[in-house]
């Protein structure tokens, strides 16, 4: 089962990624100003997964990627894949597991190992 992970970027904006059951990133959202925007986007994805389209492209280096879109809005951009088959497997994992995926919040600045 995949997992949504919310985190903070270095510029104090928020993003979320969707990771596979093996822990590999499948897609990353654009930067968002508020953590609540990430949470709302994740809930919208889970509630309406069948409404999203996946626009497949090829990068200049020959690798494959997709943009997850709702109408004309880019919701997320995938990692780069070496083959079209792996790209399809990434999309399939989203469709199969996003609805029941957990959400992890790593936005706190608490260090596991204090100074």
TrEMBL record:
InterPro entries: UPF0339_domain, YegP-like_sf. It comes from the Bacteria. Signal peptide: none annotated. This is DUF1508 domain-containing protein. It comes from Flavobacterium fluvii.
